[in-house]
Amino acid sequence: MVRCPGQDQRFWKPEDIFEVKCPGCGGNVEFFKDEPKLKCRKCGLLVTNPKIDLGCAEWCQYAEQCLGVSPEGELNIIADKLKDEMKEVFAGDQKRIEHALSVLNYSEQIREAEGGDPLVVKAAAILHDIGIVEAERKYDSSAGKYQELEGPPLAEGILKRYDLKAETIEHICRIIANHHSAKDIDTAEFRIVWDADWLVNIPTDFPEASKEKLQEIIDKTFKTCKGRQIALEIFLNRPMKEC
After folding, report:
1. pLDDT band at residue 176, thresholds of 50, 70 and 90?
2. What's the sign of the alpha-carbon dihedral 191, 196, 201, 207?
3. What whole-number distance in Å separates Cα of residue 37 and Cα of residue 23?
4. Domain count for the chain
């Protein structure tokens, strides 16, 4: 059987073999570019290859057998790591952690109906409030106003550890920089995270709002059909309709 050219080492370049720092002990783990995971020889931790290229997995029927991981599996690995990064920044603040995970949950529901890049949506949802801790440290009572400023540099530093495309990182950071103000972005992924954040925030921000007020907020604020439908079902008990 002829090997896939991308996996045939005769076609490899020097940079296709590289070392990755083990997040557990700091030791070096040597990867070939097609190895999805390796166990660190020093501490035994299973380390994920941050540079694995799953492009062929989008179309090749043998990709999962060949690479040992599916695109969905790789996406979930990155999402799980970003959750860990988010929890570390929030230092055990369960309220903020649960908020981010709730926004992620709604974002995934909305994206299933609206489409969009799943990596951008997941990452932006998980990291959307990542700047609040630094904003509180610098600006105290004005933290909410400045978290859009502090969040993108922190998110960029985290995302660069996973060898994502520059345009993907830039897109995620723009969503984070706009998730309260919607200043200069209107992508499908932004609209999804925006609506998911509002779904989580409405009960806290408007605890005593009348049905008329809630209807006004929903009509004025939501940017996706699916987000609006979820809001109507949750807050006004209206049956979910197809968008």
Report:
1. very high
2. positive
3. 13
4. 2
Task: Determine contact, residues 197/128, Cβ cutoff 8 Å.
Answer: yes
* Mean pLDDT within 163-172: 92
76 and 167, same domain (yes or no): yes
- Collapsing DSSP states into helix, strand and coil, what is residue 27? coil
> Which domain range does residue 81 map to?
71-194
Confidence of residue 53 (pLDDT cuts 50, 70, 90): low
DSSP, collapsed to helix, strand or coil, labels residue 70 as coil
pTM, two decimals, is: 0.71
Q: Are 219 and 191 in contact (CB under 8 A)?
A: no
What H or E segment, with its residue span, contains residue 178? none
If asked whether residues 83 and 18 sit together in one domain, one would say no
Predicted local distance difference test score (pLDDT) of residue 75: 79
CA distance 93 to 96: 6
Residue type, 83: K
- Do 19 and 95 lie in one domain? The reply is no
Residue 48 placed within a domain: no
- Residue 86 CA to residue 124 CA, distance in Å, equals 11
Is a pLDDT exceeding 70 seen at residue 62?
Answer: no
Is residue 37 domain-shared with residue 83, that is, in the same domain?
Answer: no
Q: Tell how strand 28-32 and strand 46-48 pair up.
A: unpaired
